Amino acid sequence: MASGTAHTKKNKQKRTRLGGLNPGQLAVLCVPALVIFLGFVILPVIMAAYYGLFRWKGYGTPSVNGQFIGLQNFQVILTDPQFQRAVGHTFFVLIMSLLLQGPLAILFALLLNQKFKGRGLIRTLIFVPYVLSEVIVGTGWSLMLQMHGAVNQVLQQMGLGAIDWIASPKYAKWTLMFIITWKYIGFAVVLMIAGMQSIPEELYEAAKVDGAGFWRQQWSITLPLLMPTIKLWAFLSMIGSLQLFDLVYIVWGQYVSDTAGVSTMATYMTREGRLANNYGYGSAVAVVMFIISLIVAFTYQKLVMHNNLKGALTGDSGSHAPKKKHRAAKNTASKNGTTESAATSAVTA
Amino acid sequence: MSHTQTKKVSTRELKRQGYRVSQKTPWGHPIVYILSLLLVLVCITPVVYIILGGFRTNSQITRDPAGMPNPWNPANYITVLSGNVFWSELVNSLIVAAATTFFVVMLALMVSFAIARFRFRGRGVLYGLFAAGMMFPVTVAITPLFIEMRNIGLQNSLLGIVICEIAFGLPQAVVILVPFLETIPQSIQEAAEIDGCSPLGFFWRMIVPLSWPGVATVGILQFIGSWNNYMLPLYLLNDSSRYTLPLGVQMFSSQHSVDTAQVLAFTSLSMLPALIFFTIFQKRIVGGLTGAVKG
Fold first, then answer.
1. Which residues of chain B have pLDDT under 70?
2. B285 contacts in chain A (CB < 8 Å)
3. Domain residues for B192?
4. Does residue B263 lie within any of the structural domains?
5. B67 φ/ψ angles, rounded to the nearest 5 degrees
6. Residue from the list A15, A40, A133 with its beta carbon closest to the beta carbon of B230
7. For chain A, which terminus, N or C, has the lower number of CB atoms within 10 Å?
8. Which H helix or E strand runs over B67?
9. What is the pTM of this model?
């Protein structure tokens, strides 16, 4: 992996001597984490590819109690209109999340990056939905959005008609988008604020001297310099959208979600796999999901993150001139690594 | 009043002497407050609605879904709190979240220490493996994971949940901790070596205390993630006495679907621990994410 070599190169420069770590000590440090990770993350993913080749109800072992059917599961999945719809809904969520949450988060971050009394409290309060579990959010919203729920009552008091927010295919996707935005926008805002704080104040002062107004400053300074953060957030958001399960499953349940037009790949997998006791088929769906996620991730890396990484590696990223030395060190560390590590350093920075 | 007065004078005095004095945060433009207030209202109203709804009766909710409790009725909360279900699920959730957080932090710190501070063969591969692990969310592995846990007899046990959550928590923790540990100055490590400190001794005496801020971030994220986890318990647990709170909320709301007030009370009680945890650590969470802790 590119990240590995980049890291090694960096450490060669930083460290003249190698720390004395004998194999026993190395094993003590690495083996426990490695065993758990390989045994309960990597092994199941590999097993999914194997189970996916069988028609199997989950009893015993697939080779004895199941029937080897080759790629038939995959053929069924890819031609099942229900799955195709689920993929469509998943990508609808993915794209709309980017289009809705991105601009909103930047605007809110601009607002909460102003210096004013009480902004710490406000930043904290908008983060509350992110901390609550999907189950609570789903349960709460599904009660409020019922036909005779609080939201419709307020609408009627304002002279508007009641809307079937949950079951109607016309509105359900937008209801889902609203709940998703409500739940996750706090995280996006906080991430954007973090990005904005690393933009040097002097740039704005210089722009002010040159006569640029507030919005002009944001357009010409904030937005371009925030790009690395935006790209990173977009990556995290996309990965999250592809795995969307809890909220849909709680609010819409296993059957309504398809007719309401909000089923996702993960709810399809649960319904056709675990609940129908088709463990071979469920595993095959997982494999398809994984491949789709990988394709999205790699395409995004190639198309969008490409320039960013290249600029970072050659050292003329041109953006992000961090104020603090500490953060500078962190940024270099992360930019030399994968996007994932860039992700987290932005999260921790 | 007099206190602020003296402070003001001294600030002006200091400024005259050429010191840079940090200015007090100014009051913002009214529009900033109006917009912020709207934003906060949108974020908080549903949470308040759930909590207040628990203080109402079902007939109040049916008559006026968006109204206030009138009169206030603590019966729903008392019913939930006096039953065993809520408490046993709370304890299960606490056990799972605490154990997961402890082990994720410990194991990730150990492996990150090796990756960040030493050079050995396969180091890049090891880091790459954990970094790539971020691309393996639990959704993809859950079906075979269920089979695996059943085969080793850990289905339907909290231990099984804990092991799985540790495994899926490690990548994020390692990816956060490695860059963090790399920023600890090399000179400290060299000094420790000169003083005859073994690598493992250095780990215990220096890395564990020095990495506290990174550990706190990882620990808090992991605790919240584990507390809210729904899919793993949903697949792995079928005995309701082992249920964690998210499963409990869902079960309660389907069992008591006609008793909306009771469901709201149960839901708000189960979000209370997360809210308390967040209130205690909010500076760390939001501050840790935004870089600087600013009031």
1. 1-25, 286-295
2. 127, 131
3. 91-257
4. no
5. -85, 180
6. A133
7. N
8. none
9. 0.82
